[in-house]
Amino acid sequence: MRAYVVNEWVHPSELKLLDDAPEPEVTGDQILVDVYSSALNFFDILQAQGKYQVKPPFPFTLGAEFAGKVAKDSPIPKCCPYKPGDRVFGSAQGCFAEKLAVEWQSVNLLPDNLTFDQGAGLYITWPTSYEALVGRADLKPGESVLINAAAGGVGIAAVQLAKALGATVIAAAGSQSKLDICKIYGGADHTVNYTAKDWQQEVLRITGGKGVDVVFDPVGRIAESLKCIAFKGRALVVGFAAGQIEKLPLNLVLLKNITVMGIFWGLYTHKEPSRIPIVWKELLELFASDRIKPIMYDKIFSLDEVTVGLDALEKRQTWGKAIVRIKDEKQIVVAKL
To answer: Is this structure's pTM higher than 0.85?
Structure first.
């Protein structure tokens, strides 16, 4: 089996694709999946170096999101609703490989109107963005939201979701090309380049001086975004893709009556498992209605190119979700693409 196996903490650029990696052993509630596509995430770069909160024991296979088929020879645990041949997507350690052992509870059926490439980036990104906006910030129709790093995976999902929820979306990114992505693919109402001097003034102008009701930040720009947040605004800490954990000016939190809240979707499995099926039901209904759709970077990487893709992700050259196609299959897609 071909796979990217990590035997020591290294930068992902040093990883090699093995042709003879051992196939995963399936135990307990796990099923065996033939991986057709997987998604690249920023935390893959951190995990390979031992800088991510999830540190599997050596050796382990890199990659956390996938879409594929339940393997013909997969055992089917008791109560598992899936059968061999089912098209599924989900999350597990070891997705940069041809086969994967995954707990069936971490898997969903892939909607018929989505390809494996589209499905590979759903499981972590979309519920993170949805729960941040709906479950944490309680975004309402007519409110305004500033989405930082809006052309990235969680960002472009948040843009679409906020629009579907009836909010006015201000998408922020660091280049005109990425701002164009937010408009063309995400449907953002307004765009702002946050590398420009005093960019917050543009946000205030757009909102008539009020500031935004919600800030969605996966990159580490909460502090500077507080200059254009509204009274009683809600600031969502989604991640630190810029590499630095922020220190916030709490005087602004006090003076503006701001709520700062975090979202770590992975913790829901242990802390609030009852919320997970609710989020997925609502998300899959939105996908089925074509009100939202996965946005993929325009270069699909092969399994041989995982390190190339992670390098592009680290250098912020990608937009949407960067995808690795491991196995190809002709599919009839009925979605409006």
So the answer is: yes
